[in-house]
């Protein structure tokens, strides 16, 4: 043991000891407040080295380079979405629709497993592409055929974001395509009613 600096007590040598993911490599001086500092290397595989206050190591306040936080975050995601299908685009469409239905007070009786994303938008014929969460014209979306009927299996279709938002800024040709789509999609519903 070496004598401590500024505190009047003996310093415990932490060299070679492990504190969760930190491995203490050597003494690294003293902090401005007089606490011993230790050079540590994270054993998560990153090889990151940092200077850590000894009390933070012994009290468990510092456990690694941030890897522990990432592991806990990943575990929390798995707890919220324990099944591998939670990352599927169909499931994400389902979750978004469920949120909007609750927010807007609309009926909701979808089963995510019945949502099928076609390769191309049935309205505009463009290839549907899932992305990083930001909608593009080619993003798949759930279209409510009759908005006030909400999200039910017989009232929704997967179409492109562009087709779903086309009412705002459509060309005449785009509107004709939307009209043909709506007439064809509604016909079975109206006949069944």
List keywords for this structure.
5 helices, single chain, about 190 residues, four-stranded antiparallel beta sheet, elongated, two-stranded antiparallel ribbon, alpha+beta, Herpes Virus-1, 2 domains, 8 strands
Describe this structure in words.
The chain is built from 5 helices and 8 strands; from the N terminus they run E-E-E-E-E-E-H-H-H-E-E-H-H. The chain is of the alpha+beta class. The longest helix has 21 residues, at 172-192.
Average residue-wise pLDDT: 85
Outline the biggest β-sheet: 4 strands, antiparallel
- Range of strand content: 15-25%
**Low-confidence residue ranges:** 1-6
| CATH architectural type of the largest domain | 2-Layer Sandwich
Which helices and strands, and how do they pair?
Layout: E1 2-3, E2 10-11, E3 18-19, E4 22-30, E5 36-42, E6 49-53, H1 54-58, H2 67-80, H3 89-104, E7 140-144, E8 156-160, H4 161-169, H5 172-192
Antiparallel strand pairs: 1-2, 3-4, 4-5, 5-6, 7-8
Write a brief caption for the model:
By secondary structure, the protein is of the alpha+beta class. It has 5 helices and 8 strands, in the order ββββββαααββαα. It starts with a strand and ends with a helix.
């Amino acid at each position: 043991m070496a004598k401590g600096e500024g505190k009047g007590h003996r310093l415990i040598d932490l060299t070679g000891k492990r504190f969760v993911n930190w491995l203490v490599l050597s003494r690294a001086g003293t902090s401005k407040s007089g606490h011993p500092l230790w050079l540590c290397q994270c054993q998560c595989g990153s090889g990151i080295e940092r200077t850590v206050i000894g009390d933070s190591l012994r009290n468990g306040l510092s456990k690694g380079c941030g890897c522990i936080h990432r592991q806990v975050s990943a575990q929390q995601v798995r707890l919220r979405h324990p099944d591998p299908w939670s990352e599927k685009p169909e499931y994400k469409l389902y979750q978004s629709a469920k949120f909007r239905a609750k927010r807007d007070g609309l009926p909701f009786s979808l089963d995510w497993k019945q949502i099928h994303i076609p390769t191309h938008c049935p309205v505009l014929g463009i290839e549907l592409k899932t992305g990083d969460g930001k909608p593009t014209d080619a993003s798949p979306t759930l279209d409510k055929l009759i908005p006030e009927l909400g999200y039910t299996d017989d009232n929704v279709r997967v179409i492109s974001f562009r087709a779903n938002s086309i009412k705002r800024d459509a060309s005449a040709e785009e509107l004709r395509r939307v009209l043909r789509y709506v007439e064809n999609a509604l016909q079975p519903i109206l006949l069944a009613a």
